[in-house]
Amino acid sequence: MEISEKLIVITGGGAGIGAALAMGMANAGARHVIVSDINFENAQKVANQINGSAASVDVSKEDEILELVQSVEDKHGPIDIFCSNAGYVTNAGLEDSNERITHMWEVHVMAHIYAARAVIPQMIANGGGYLLNTASAAGLLTQIGSLAYSVTKGAAVSLAQWLAITHHHQGIRVSVLCPQAVRTDILSNSPDLVSGEEAEWEEDGVASSDGILEPESVALECISAINEERFLVLPHQQVVDYMKYKAEDIDRWLSGMRRFQEKLYDGTSLPGDIMGPDSWTSI
Questions:
Q1: Closest CA relative to residue 39, chosen from 16, 72, 62, 20
Q2: Which segments of 113-210 are extended strands (E)?
Q3: The CATH fold of domain 7-242
Q4: CA dist., res. 274 & res. 7, Å (int)
Q5: Domain ranges across the chain
Q6: Per-residue pLDDT tens over the stretch 70-100
C-alpha cells in the first residue's frame, strides 16, 4: 500500500517510534495524520510539526479507541492505515502482581484487538486497509528479566498473524513491528524506573549489544514494509538469524539464552533467584 494521500492514525505517537512514524508518514505524502497518545501535550507537539491532528487516548480502554476512530471518521473520512503502537516495559518475573501483568496485557494485546474491532469493518466496507501493530523482537524470542513483556509481546505477534490470515481476503493487510534496541522513551515510562535514575537509552525486545537504532530509521523500515505489504518488520536484521537458530534447535537456543542471561547479570542475582517485589532489578 502506498502512503501517499492516505489517512493515518497512530497511537503512542507522542514520542519515540510513534512520533517518528507520524513524521515519516507525513513526509511520505499522507493526506492527514492523527497523532494520539495518553499524553496529549506530547501528541499535540508532534501533530503541530506535521500539520496533523492530536488526540488523547488511553489504549487500554476500548471506549476511548472507539471514540477516536469514530471522531476521525466523522471529521476526516475513512481510516486507511491504523498504527497501533503504544507500549511500555516492566522488569519482573513470577513475583509480578496480577494487576501489573493484566495492565500490560491490556496495552500490548487488547489495545490491538480494540483497534482491529474498531477499524476493520469500516476498512472492509471501503475496499481494504492496513494495520501496523508494534510488538517486539521479544515477541519472536523473549525478554530476559520481564515475564509480562515477553508474554504480551508474544501474544501481539500471534494476534497479528491471525489478523493477517483471517481478513486478507477482505482487503486487510497487516504488518507487525519487532525491533530490538531503539532509542525511545519506553524505559523512562516504565513504572519500574527508579526515581532519579537516568535512562540514556531504552530497549524494545531482547536485551542486546547489537546496536541501538534511532526511531527515524525504524519508521522508514515500517513505511517500506507497508509499501511492500510485508508482514514482519525487522529493523535489526540479526533477529532473522536468531529466529532461524530457535526454529532449528530450540534446546540449543535456550542454552545460549541462559548463557546470555548470566553474562548480563555478571555475578549478580539472576532473575528468579529471589522471589518477591523487592527483587526487581533493572538490567
A1: 16
A2: 129-134, 172-177
A3: Rossmann fold (3.40.50)
A4: 49
A5: 7-242
A6: 999 999 999 999 999 999 999 999 999 999 9
